[in-house]
Amino acid sequence: MPYRRHVGRTLVLGLPLVGSLLAQILIGLTDTLMLGRYSVEALAAGALATTVFHAVFILAAGFAIGAMGAAAEAAGREDERTVRRTARMGLWLSLGAGLAAMPVLWFSEAILLFAAQVPRTAADTQDYMRIALFGLVPALLTMTLRSHLSALERTRIVLTATVIAAVLNFGLNWLLIFGNAGAPELGLRGAAIASVLSHTATVVVLAVYATRGPDMARWELFRNLHVMDREILVRLFHLGWPIGLTLVSESALFTGTALMMGAIGSVPLAAHGIVIQVSAATFMLHLGLSQAATVRIGRFAGQGNAADLRRAAWAAMALSGVAVALSVVVFLGAGGAIVGAFLGAGEAQAGAILTLGVTLMGVAALFQLVDAAQVMALGFLRGLQDTRWPMVLAAISYWGVGIPASLLLGFMLGMGPVGVWLGLVVGLAVASGLLMGRFWRLVAGVDQSLPR
């Protein structure tokens, strides 16, 4: 298959995934935008709550993400039974992981106080969490269904469902945060309720499509859902837990910076919350392409087609490079306008948040390249169902290099918030080099034995 066709196929599969991820991140962006116009205190607590919720979510989401590579490889071998079994056991594992993670969110105030957060912010964050935690299981089930449909190259419905959820979240925020149209004014708690309902709506739409959509009935996804498939369950467990730890290692790099910002003060935390949300939105471009690459590489791995596997990887990297260039231009050219959109004109601390936020946007532009490279490498490796060594390499990069670099630059060398963000760059740069190097080393021997 020529490179031009690889680029086209990756775009056809990846653009709906990118769109769905952008729509998903709009839920967090909408919360941040509206809470910023409600009060700085609500914005700070909302930013911290979103960061911590995301960290818990991605730890539990490893099983759902592992299902994508496993199902794609089975689809490449035209093994429909294994595709179906993988989705069912992915739902089992996601449900169990979500229930097990809920206590962490329920008792989040004690954890945040231990991490030296401002008592008022910690208390407000827990108020948000004790509502938002009911959206955790629906969000994880959504991720599993998303992986199943993506492996089958049914990505448009994923985009449709997520856009519906984002629109619903916006409307519910408008009603419940500010008390518009006769609704109660619930502030931060209103944002949490809106997020729960949005996650629930998404999983319902995907579940209906997965069973009743065009040519989907033959998969019989929920038939015998209560029956345990030990072989697939164990396989997904061994694939998924390293992915979860890999993701949480990366998230810890960002959660750690949020905690560092919170220790500095509410203004740095608020500015950080805005910029990290914007950065997360642009990151979705690379993540969506990475997930498309996981499916395509998984399919070629299942077929034993080493040549097209390599071409698919290069095509995805080229597309990600274009996305990096566009992101850098936006961050450097429109940073002030973007940060200002999150702030109310009458807020006393808006000027300080804006000034710091623009500076952080410049640093965020710097790490776009290395962040894109490391997530692309992870997607490639998941397509080969290689998850344990990436976990180790990620932990070394994020915990062993990134967090110490942020502490050194931000506090010991007195660079403050900018130094904390530069530590992110260092950690991501190391991760991108180690992970991409491992992928190409594996590919060098792919003709002899494809990694499983």
The mean pLDDT is 87
> What would you call the structural class?
mainly alpha
What is the count of DSSP helices, taking H or I runs of 4+ residues?
16
Shape: globular
Unreliable stretches (pLDDT < 50, length at least 5) are: none
The proportion of residues forming helix, as a percent range, comes to over 70%
How many separate domains?
A: 1
Instruction: Let me know the largest β-sheet.
Output: none
Give the strand content.
Answer: under 5%
Tell me the distance between the termini.
23 Å
The SSE order reads: HHHHHHHHHHHHHHHH
Q: What's the alpha carbon Rg, rounded to whole Å? A: 21 Å
Compute the number of strand runs: 0
Structure description:
This protein has 452 residues and is mainly alpha-helical. It has one domain (6-444). It is built from 16 helices and no strands. The longest helix has 38 residues, at 266-303. The model has no long low-confidence stretch (mean pLDDT 87).
